[in-house]
Amino acid sequence: MVDSKPLTDNVLGIPNQNIAVQDQNLVVRDYSLIVGQEFADVETCRRVLKEIAIALHFDLRIVKSDRSRFIAKCSKEGCPWRVHVAKCPGVPTFSIRTLHGEHTCEGVRNLHHQQASVGWVARSVEARLRDNPQYKPKEILQDIQEQHGVAVSYMQAWRGKERSMAAVHGTFEDGYRLLPAYCDQIKKTNPGSIASVFTTGQENCFQRLFVSFHALIHGFINACRPLLEVDRAHLKGKYLGTLLCASAVDADDALFPLAIAVVDAETDENWMWFLSELRKLLLMNTENMPRLTILSDRQKGIVDAVETHFPTAFHGFCLRYVSENFRDEFKNAKLVNIFWNAVYALTAAEFEAKVAEMVDISQDVIQWFHRYPPRLWAVAYFEGVRYGHFTLGVTELLYNWALEGHELPIVQMVEHMRNQLTAWFNSRRNTGITWTSILVPSAEKLVLEAMADYHCYQVLRANEVEFEIVSSERTNIVDIHSRSCSCRRWQIYGIPCAHAAAALISCGQNAHMFAEHCFTVASYCETYSQLIHPIPDRILWKDEALGGGAKADIIVHPPKTRRPPGRPKKKVLRMESFKRPKRVVQCGRCHLLGHSQKKCPMQV
């Protein structure tokens, strides 16, 4: 069949002066076809014609497709549109030989299109998914309808996303196979780092992954306070799993993850392993193991692991976990408010007074205290030093990491965490350089607040280091040598209290110099002094992992666990749940809630 139209006419009837070979990675924007137009191969030709059919709203029917030719026509009976593409002699390209470029049919009159296949959806969203793995199927089908005027089903959008994610990031199975090579790359590019993968069974199914970068180890041991938060988040990817983390806190109270792990499931055995690896990490990098304070929700697996591997550590409850349990059990706003006052009471006498108030409201409080001993959470009785850090900030971090990474293969998920850590190091290192004070801003603010109240006290000096601080409420004893005050705030928070500030100012000392070293700008800068070096692109080491390299004999297979069918249940963690509940003011005169004694309407 010979085309009756001139060679310069195209499917839209617009003259086209240029004939070019269509690239394999083509995104079709000019929906024109001309006789003589070339394509890199038959697959590219098929893809271009599908794009044109979708854009111009007509159905394409493939008449013939083999190694040497491709023939297609409009699917509507009687419509003359037809194209014949054949292989060019001696070269791999294909060119249009004949073209009937006019349609006499009305085209596709609804939003559904036969050519809008899963493969087409995958190609359409690939660029967006590269930047945003959280691109949801619901958003995909909405965007496709808006941009292309085509309706696809939710399942098509979901499968298209899965196929595109595999093309961009690799499959979940590839992620597990790449783990040994990835661990080698971490240790090669970041000397002193720890990266280990463990398998189980004869099939070498994935069981555990432990990663800690040298920059994190150095920062924790040399500059952070000896405090660790331990928590986990459940992954909802294809093979499920659990993300574990031990995080420190830097001088300015920002999270500083020390070690992360991915395990096949949250079990007592995996917690025991994780704390064992954490202990090895510390023993390898310091001669004097610090006496740690560890915060967690104290579930059995964590408690047993801490007692086994850190027997001298002080292991306390996260106050948010304790308070939520108390609130859910008693459901009494006044009782919860008194409970918080008891939590933050600095002395045993203050604590017991608040407990007596709670018992007056409900005798059941006594039984609750037996289940949750105050020595594990109350500021007045907890023996470890928490430096004013009482809740698990790492919970929110892990939740975000799990949310952002569950769509990615395991290697890409860990890389996402490494990239975020690198960005944090860069930003915080640059921020620290700009500070000119002795203490970081958060500690500086506390010291200035303490110094502002020094004139409220009468200072009596007993000797070179001991002071008696007298106020209208009570008398406190300050020892500037041992850095202690009888109110206990200095010891608990590591920053001079108002009584200590009054004593220091009276003898001409700089109160800033008496804060713990971990709150200094020098300590902050040391925390982020090391670099987290980049990992080469996986193209440079993938072949070694999949065959022919030193680790070729270790092929890590996915774990046996699989995500069950259906939509997973979501546990929404609201931002307000990560904060202490707003304090309810109670009047000291009439004992009603909602106002203070100064504003009490009761007549004196």
From TrEMBL:
Keyword rRNA-binding attached: no
Presence of keyword Metal-binding: yes
GO molecular function: zinc ion binding
Transmembrane segments: none
Alphabetized SMART domains for the sequence: ZnF_PMZ
Span of domain SWIM-type: 467-508
Keyword terms, alphabetized: Metal-binding, Zinc, Zinc-finger
Domain of life: Eukaryota
PROSITE patterns to which the protein is assigned, alphabetical: ZF_SWIM (PS50966)
Coiled-coil regions, chain positions: none
Leader sequence residues: none
Cross-referenced InterPro entries: MULE_transposase_dom, Transposase_MuDR, Znf_PMZ, Znf_SWIM
Protein's recorded name: SWIM-type domain-containing protein
